[in-house]
Each structure stands twice: as structure tokens, then as C-alpha cells.
């Protein structure tokens, strides 16, 4: 089965494969979701202060960093950065190999 998959991939041009792997639909910017409960709802196990810090600082930082990462990705994709293509193609190849190898 690996040989059949290899022949199929070999028949596709590298540029077309890279374009297919690097194509990501545009998305709206991610936003911090609100909580359906009050920060103090988990007291006395988790304090309202900890919940407020976790949500408004930590969770917000993850959302912000995800938006930054997606922006940088879009810029690299537009430039056709070789490193980006190399790593995504490597990821695609490895994923195909592991799927064929382990049947997952």
C-alpha cells in the first residue's frame, strides 16, 4: 500500500502539493469567549481571583497569541517561505506515512 501511495504522490507536482498543503481558509479573528458562570462559582475550591486571572489573563493571552500566529502564518504563506513549505510538506509526508504504517 505504501508503494501505491508513493506513486500517487510522485505523480503530483511538488508545487501543486505544496499549494494544497498550504491552503488554509481565512478565518475571523479569535476572541476571548465569555464564561457562563461567575468567577466565584467554583469557590471554595478555586477562588474567584484565580478564575478571574486565569480567564482574563491566561486564556486571553492564548487567544491573542493564536491570532498573532495565524497572522504570521498568513504572511509567510503569501511570501511562499521555503521553511514553511518544507515543514508543512514534512508534516504531510510523515502523517501519511504514519497513517499507512499504523493504520490510524
UniProtKB/TrEMBL annotation:
The keyword Cytoplasm does not apply. InterPro entries: Fe/Mn_Superoxide_Dismutase (IPR050265), Mn/Fe_SOD (IPR001189), Mn/Fe_SOD_N (IPR019831), Mn/Fe_SOD_N_sf (IPR036324). Pfam families: Sod_Fe_N. Its EC number is 1.15.1.1. It catalyses: 2 superoxide + 2 H(+) = H2O2 + O2. It comes from the Eukaryota. Belongs to the iron/manganese superoxide dismutase family. GO terms for cellular component: mitochondrion. Keywords: Manganese, Metal-binding, Oxidoreductase. GO terms for molecular function: manganese ion binding; superoxide dismutase activity. Destroys superoxide anion radicals which are normally produced within the cells and which are toxic to biological systems. This is superoxide dismutase.
